[in-house]
Amino acid sequence: MRAKVSHLLTGLLLPVTLLALWWVVSSRSSTPYYPPLPEILRGFRAVWTREQLTSELVPSLVSLIVGFVVAVAVGVSGGVALGLSDRLRRDVRPLTEFLRAMPVVALIPIALVLFGPGMRMEIALIAFAACWPILVSTADGVRAADEVMLNTARVFGVSSRRQLMYVVLPGAMPQVMAGARIAVAAAVGTMVVANMVASSAGLGYLVISAQQSFNVIETWAGLLMIGIVGSCMTSAVVLIERFVLRWHRQWRAQDVDT
């Protein structure tokens, strides 16, 4: 228990230090573009009323969560297929590399034509941007499956399906979760850009509208909320990772002890 508390305090040290530094440095700020932190926090509380949370935050959260779940499903299934088949991976590699390099911003006009403005378009863009880190990490994890365990499973007559479920996927899961953590940043960034360019609601829309009307406090309030959403999303993925990979941590601890 004491170790967990110490770990938590250590993790909070840097954010608290940065906030304190921001508070002190900005306290004498006279420029309207960088107001003091206490003024920003008061504006944050004023901006994010119940009405704003419902009209701006909730749509963004729904698009983000649904798009990320779709990205995980597509990335894991596609990564497993690519990891299991050398021929498939070789044949589709030019296409995957081309799509991975495509900026999401450049796809917004096509997404608008295909899905129209709104949540469906945002979900499609978020899923597209977030699936690639997961797909690549999953494919690498599947390819790195323990050959000794696979050969042992084959000797004992374990079916291919059970080998996939109980040997390949658990072994690839650390890399899958690493890809998911990287994908969170891509998902949040895509959500904000889609809101800014092609939506009439959401966090990105609030920020760009405030910036265009020279409402600096509201702009900072939107940016802070985006940071909070990204941090909460990352924390959620980390908690899921800890739950899914409990066996991995225990195995590593036993390996170190031996």
Automatic annotation (TrEMBL):
Transmembrane segments annotated in the record for this chain: 61-85, 97-117, 123-142, 182-208, 220-240
Gene3D superfamilies the UniProt entry points to: MetI-like (1.10.3720.10)
Keywords: Cell membrane, Membrane, Transmembrane, Transmembrane helix, Transport
A family per Pfam: BPD_transp_1
GO cellular component terms, semicolon-separated: plasma membrane
UniProt subcellular location: Cell membrane
CDD domains per record: TM_PBP2
GO biological process: transmembrane transport
PROSITE patterns hit by this protein: ABC_TM1
InterPro entries for the chain: MetI-like (IPR000515), MetI-like_sf (IPR035906)
Residue ranges constituting the ABC transmembrane type-1 domain according to the UniProt record: 57-241
Membrane topology recorded in Swiss-Prot or TrEMBL: Multi-pass membrane protein
Family: Belongs to the binding-protein-dependent transport system permease family.
Name recorded for this polypeptide: ABC transporter permease
Species of provenance: Actinoallomurus iriomotensis
Lineage: Bacteria, Bacillati, Actinomycetota, Actinomycetes, Streptosporangiales
